[in-house]
TrEMBL record:
UniProt name for this protein: DegT/DnrJ/EryC1/StrS family aminotransferase
Family: Belongs to the DegT/DnrJ/EryC1 family.
Provenance organism: Gracilibacillus salitolerans
Top-level taxon: Bacteria
Pfam family, one: DegT_DnrJ_EryC1
Length: 378
């Protein structure tokens, strides 16, 4: 098999109907109202509330500012129990709030925070649990809530990958005190850059609006130290347009998921991490785990091998956040305390997955994987 002519990346952004959004962008520009909670912004809030089946939702200029301001709005203090297996933004939002992460190991199957390990991490300083629905697979929300209730802790979900996913028939967005969604270009639903917070407590709406707008509660009153976290009108137009093509994209991704599943279930040593379907899935990523003994080669050999075919997979989320140098002195960051996270971070590989991935390219990816395995096993 020869190297594929054009690179195949891990994802490609969903884009709206260009004619429709061009018209809407014209309207926005003509209206001379470009940002600061404009009409398109408000319309997107309503449409997303509807889509996610939530009561309250605030928009932001990206997921990181959403999470950072959300943690601030909840007035958390001291320590927050979280996962090391996530994108840096999760823990950086804690850093910006002067909160100390307490790293907790993950579950073998879901790769999400292991609720059975949370209680032993709780101290008098713990104020919250910040869990991540990694790759869109839901955390054990019931167990996490039980622990939070017992110790009076807040629960925040980083749902950057979990847009639109359901848990036991209910919108995953309805669990915990707050959930953040990222609308970055690489996310299934995107506003190019953007993010949202959803929450059951309606008092947070005004608080978040103030925090998102420099702490201004009125033109001349600065109530708190906030910052500029606002989503602009063009971002909102892209979001409205992408909502109109979202279901079609989900269908295309379901087809690709099925093809991958069909191929990989035949190969010993590959476990599919993101194997949920229909309303249960966020269709954000397609992730596999490589068991080196069974598969014959390591995840890294496969990752680099695919690169030589012009196929760019990602080793999300390597390195673990607990490895960041500024956490060096934290006991919870030590390798011996995070055995499963360390094992999995060296086994997991995110494969190309987006609606526009043609059958021919899916076949190239699958054939390349088999060929690399075969060649290396010789
Ligand atoms: N929490 C979690 C758990 C997260 O995963 C993230 C973000 C956040 C919080 C923070 O949310 P935001 O503040 O970002 O809203 C990407 C994204 O930039 C990032 O949003 C995402 N998670 C993370 C998992 O993935 P990179 O460094 O992998 O991006 P990049 O530029 O390498 O893009 C990946 C591939 O996508 C490229 O190989 C090609 C393709 N691509 C990318 C862009 C930007 C395109 O085809 N077109 C594009 O415009 O971080």
């Amino acid at each position: 098999m020869e190297m594929f002519k054009y690179p195949i990346y891990v994802t490609q952004p969903l884009t709206p109907n260009i004619l429709e959004v061009t018209k809407e962008i014209e309207q926005v520009l003509e209206s001379k109202w470009l940002t600061n909670f404009g009409n398109k912004h408000e319309l997107l809030v309503e449409e997303l509330k509807n889509y996610l089946e939530v009561g309250h939702l605030s928009l932001f200029n990206n997921g990181t500012s959403a999470l950072t301001l959300g943690l601030k709005a909840l007035e958390l203090t001291g320590e927050v129990i979280t996962t090391p297996f996530t994108f840096p933004a999760t823990v950086q939002a804690l850093d910006w709030n002067n909160l100390t992460p307490v790293f907790c190991d993950v579950e073998k199957n879901s790769l999400n925070i292991n609720p059975d390990k949370i209680e032993e991490k709780i101290t008098g300083k713990t104020s919250a649990i910040l869990a991540v629905h990694v790759f869109g697979n839901p955390c054990n929300v019931e167990k996490i809530q039980q622990i939070a209730d017992k110790y009076n802790l807040k629960v925040i979900y980083d749902g950057a990958h979990a847009f639109g996913a359901q848990y036991k028939g209910e919108s995953l967005a309805n669990f915990g005190d707050m959930t953040m969604f990222s609308f970055h270009a690489t996310k299934l639903f995107n506003t190019i850059e953007g993010g949202a917070l959803v929450y059951p407590d309606n008092r947070l709406a005004e608080k978040l609006r103030v925090l998102t707008n420099f702490g201004l509660s009125s033109p001349e009153k600065v109530e708190v130290s906030g910052f500029n976290g606002k989503m602009n009108e063009i971002q909102a137009v892209i979001g409205l347009g992408n909502l109109r093509v979202l279901e079609e994209e989900r269908k295309n991704r379901e087809r690709i998921r099925q093809t991958y599943v069909g191929e990989f279930t035949k190969i010993p040593g590959i476990r599919i991490i993101t194997n949920r379907k229909k309303r249960e899935s966020s269709y954000q990523y397609f992730v596999i785990e490589i068991d080196e003994d069974e598969f014959g080669i390591s995840r890294d050999k496969l990752h680099y091998g695919l690169k030589s075919y012009n196929i760019f997979t990602r080793r999300y989320f390597y390195p673990l956040c607990s490895e960041f140098h500024w956490y060096r002195d934290l006991d919870s960051a030590k390798r011996k305390n995070l055995p499963i996270a360390w094992e999995k971070v060296n086994q997991v590989l995110t494969l190309p997955f987006y609606g526009g991935l043609e059958d021919e390219k899916i076949k190239i990816v699958c054939d390349a994987i088999k060929e690399i395995q075969f060649k290396n096993a010789l």
